[in-house]
Amino acid sequence: MTPSTPSRISIGVDVGGTKVLCAAFNANNELIAHSQVSTKQGEVEIVDEVCKLIAEVINQIILKYGNDTKFTIGIGVPGLVNQNTGQVSESVNLGSHSIDFKTEIRKRFGLNSVIDNDVNAAAFGAYHYYGSDSSSLVFLNLGTGVSAGIIINGSIFHGSTGVAGEIGHIVADTQGRDCPCGQRGCVETIISGTGLSKLWPAKNEYPIASLLRNVSAKNKEAEEVWNKFISTLVSALQIITVTFDPEIIVIGGGVSKTGAILLKGVKEYICRLEQKSSFLSSLKISDRVVIADQEVFFGALGSALIGRRYDDKAKEEN
């Protein structure tokens, strides 16, 4: 006997630079099924992989609840997303300049889907997770790349062209490393997982873990890299604060898995700056910053919620 069928299951797909996660949530935002694979490069490959994951999760749900289950689909993907067409462009970390998920999903499943930037989706998930009592939140993702998802008055802020939040491509060091975007010394080349791996190469160990271990051992080179990393991260937090003035700034992504150590480094550096600047002290940046809960699939949750919201609006209009 199958459990009682939920009125609707929301599927969210989080397409990252290293992995693709597909998860299903019920009306209470509880995780009820998920699956993930390593990310493949190229438009055809990534679209096919996403569709296979969606099919796998849908089959899990049907086996549990039966064929009458209704689904909504949302997808978060790196790059610039046209909010009218769902077309993804400039997804450099996926090796593609143009990706169309909507057409293939409609073809395979007969369902509409909603596409947004992956970090926007994570921000939307974080907004609902940390409580929507706050009016504004920014999710700063330190993953394969660096970007920020912005929530203002409970809605994702895309900007006029969808580029809002691409903070990873602000130049922080004009003499720094080349960035895939074509510039040099972008924030992303310093505080992303990819950037850090070039600043501090490590064998058989995550660069951030190796770096922190060497900092603890008083390795001067490691201390220099750590200081550069933290100072650049704090600069990004300052830019976010004075530009959007959010109540909460969530630091997420793979690099954030260092958790309390990362937060301690950020707050200590901010404290030193505040001692020299009453203006910075008045911003209370430290009080705004939290590290993302590593047990929550923020990207997939946010994508699912975006898909659900689209379905709700479509029903209201009909």
TrEMBL record:
Highest taxon of the source? Bacteria
Q: Which GO terms describe its molecular function?
A: kinase activity
Q: Which InterPro entries match?
A: ATPase_NBD, ROK
Q: Does the keyword Aminoacyl-tRNA synthetase apply?
A: no
Task: Extract the Pfam families matched here.
Answer: ROK
Against Gene3D superfamilies, the record matches this protein to: 3.30.420.40
The UniProt keyword set, sorted, is: Kinase, Transferase
UniProt xrefs under PANTHER family: BIFUNCTIONAL UDP-N-ACETYLGLUCOSAMINE 2-EPIMERASE_N-ACETYLMANNOSAMINE KINASE, ROK (REPRESSOR, ORF, KINASE) FAMILY
The family note in this entry says: Belongs to the ROK (NagC/XylR) family.
- What is this protein's name? Sugar kinase
Q: Which organism is it from?
A: Gardnerella vaginalis 1400E
Name the lineage: Bacteria, Bacillati, Actinomycetota, Actinomycetes, Bifidobacteriales
